[in-house]
Amino acid sequence: MVSNISHYLNRFKANLQIDETIKDGVVQELYTHLEEKTQELEENGLSREEASRIAVQSLGSPELLAQQIYETHAQGSWKEALFSALPHLMVALLFTSYYWQNIVCVSVVLALIVGMAIYGWHRGKPIWFFPWLGYYLMPVIVTGILLLSLPEGWGWVAALIYIPLAFFVFVHILRQTARRDWLYASLMLAPILVTLSWFSSLGTGNALLGDAIWLARLQTNALWIVASFVALAAATIAFIRLKPRRYKIVSLLIPPLVILFSVTTTSWGNIDWRGWLILLFSLSAFATPVWMQARAYQ
């Protein structure tokens, strides 16, 4: 039979959505407090079971306690906030300076993103890690989309080989992230949603592979793309610095949706059915985690 203390701690830990590097320490500290309270009550003549029941009741609901502790630890430092926003600002800088056309600069940025994502994964997935992870997944997703634009007869390569494998990897990483915190999943997916919004506006089908067409559209929208990623950086900083979870939801949800609406409105005629399908899938993937968290406050 599971003891009162074990049952309480299990519920508390399941609802405690803080950094894994400090979660175990918080749970251990709470366990020590409950054990000390139980022993004190036992010395007053109560049985072990009765003493542990009173000890856990004195703390109130484990879900409410987890929420209170979450808000205590939810506010990241300015250093964490700026580091989380750094990949968005790097992309904005590439388009501001037109270095996105320089393969060396793009390769350096990609190498830095991959390195930081791998480093963060092995460091316990700190909060600053998730925006970097979103950019880490970007080449995997964009490659799958480009494969769909292969000449007729070659599309099966994407449909039967690459896309199922990429989808499996994507879902696995998404599930691992959501197990930590559903909001972190949306934080990770936000740059993917914004990037795919602009990507889908560049052309339709095989027209995307025509250099003159998509390069011209990309140059025309360069300043808007810069503004989009700067807005995403600002939203990320707000997400890290805010304490109440409901405010984090608002800061995370509004900017990418506004950017998506702006892109699709200005580029309506350039998006074909495949582009709309990609946008619908990416929007659903981004909004589902944050929507599930929003329901908890209804």
Outline the fold blueprint.
Layout: H1 4-15, H2 20-43, H3 48-57, H4 62-74, H5 78-96, H6 103-122, H7 129-147, H8 155-180, H9 182-200, H10 211-220, H11 222-241, H12 245-266, H13 273-295
Helix pairs in contact: 1-2, 1-4, 2-3, 5-6, 5-7, 5-11, 6-7, 7-8, 7-9, 8-9, 9-11, 9-12, 9-13, 11-12, 12-13
State the total count of DSSP E strands: 0
Main sheet: strands, sense, barrel: none
Q: What is the average per-residue confidence, as pLDDT, rounded to a whole number?
A: 79
So how many helices?
Answer: 13
- Backbone shape: elongated
Terminus-to-terminus distance: 34 Å
Would you write up a description of this structure?
With 298 residues, the chain is mainly α. It has two domains: 4-72, no CATH class; 77-295, no CATH class. It is 80% helix and 0% strand. It has 13 helices and no strands. It has helices at 4-15, 20-43, 48-57, 62-74, 78-96, 103-122, 129-147, 155-180, 182-200, 211-220, 222-241, 245-266, 273-295. α7 (129-147) packs antiparallel against α8 and α9 packs parallel to α12 (245-266). The radius of gyration is 23 Å and the shape is elongated. The two termini are 34 Å apart. The relative contact order is 0.10.
